[in-house]
Amino acid sequence: MKFEFIITPGGFLKFNWPSQFSEWIDNDEANKKLDIFYKSAEPEINKLFKKIGNKFKRLRKIGEYFTIGIDSENPKNGQHIELVAIFDLKKSKIIHWTGKFYPTRYQERELIKINDLNTHFVKLNNEKIVILGCHDLSIFNPRGQASTKNGSWRRETAKRFKKICREFKPEIILQHPHTTDTPNIWNQDWKKVEEELPYVKHYASGIKYYDRNIGHPRGSINEVLEKTKKGDVIDFVYVK
Predict the structure, then answer these.
(1) Could you tell me the pTM of the whole model?
(2) Residues forming a β-bridge with 5
């Protein structure tokens, strides 16, 4: 079998926080210097493919693009960034970067949000694809959006992103959540995607089946996988 995209969870890899930003950096200022983060993350991605050696050749035969969630955190103050890279397996190089733009409420201060929403929209193989970080999918959550205030940053950002989605008319959405241990986490979000974006033919979440708080999953893996995909999606399960 051959696959167009192979998807990983968020934080699949980690990279060292750039030394240039040893102290707190303003979000807008950080967005002007995202290339520094990309250049710091790229060696870790290349190291991954070098580590698997001959298996990389096999990977190139079955896949076209590898989407990689890769995070970093400042050990001094907890400021962090959650990136997603698209790696072209045929060309053996990263062809696109984006990252989480819609933090959880607990992350609002520490997360470096990717301001340019257009980086989430790419065209590959004559198909329109949306790349989402972990919590980005929550802009489609009906309950979450109902609780945001009119005119707030959250409400306005969600409106802008949905507007771009309607104009772009994506066929594929790929999400990179960090952990998913129950189908309830993203179920309502994906249902809303189907309602608001009927032209989306395929979607999938890269799953790390785990709950970091209680130490074991709350739902069955079959239910989780079933509720986080649509269309032509094949699940690969790796048991550590």
Answers:
(1) 0.93
(2) 65
Strand partners, 72: 81
Q: Where are the beta strands (DSSP E) in 48-178?
A: 63-73, 80-88, 93-99, 121-124, 127-132, 172-175
Which of the two residues, 198 and 146, has the higher pLDDT score? 198
Domain that holds residue 66: 3-230
Task: Tell me whether residue 190 is in a domain.
Answer: yes
Asked if the model's pLDDT at residue 209 lies above 80, the reply is no
Backbone φ, ψ for residue 185 (5° rounding): -60, -50
Write the CB contacts of 146 (distance below 8 Å, at least 6 apart in sequence). Answer: none
Q: Which of 131, 138, 127 is nearest to 87 (CA)?
A: 131
pLDDT at site 1: 82
Cα–Cα distance measured from residue 3 to residue 122, given in angstroms and rounded to the nearest whole number: 18
Is 184 inside any structural domain? Answer: yes
The total domain count for the chain is 1
